Please model this.
Amino acid sequence: MGFDETRMDIIGQNGNDGDHYEDGVKYDAEKPEFDLIPPLMELEVAKVLTVGAQKYSPDNWRRVPDLRRRYISAARRHINALQQGITYDDETGLHHAAHAVCCLMFLGEVELEAGGVESAPFA
Model:
């Protein structure tokens, strides 16, 4: 569907005939609310990803053999450190929660791309 067809479809859905529009209307009620992501942790996760990209290479995590087992294990190590009262990773100085989030994001990304855990390439 092209831009004009999409525009006309939206106009039709919202009851506008194209001659007038309501001020301040934005049809985003059904869209993900990215503003709900806590900004300090978002930044900390980005820092963890940056350190990883510098240490290994960007997207190297996609090529880790036995990805599922290894990233679950890594996430659990970071969570275990938090359970012991250790907030920051010794190697990076970054929050263990951000490291755990990255590990789980890698796992989730691969599974979502594959259409579910049953289809994910975990070799």
Q: What stands out?
A: Residues 34-114 form one domain. The chain has a mean pLDDT of 87. The chain has four helices and no strands. The radius of gyration is 21 Å.
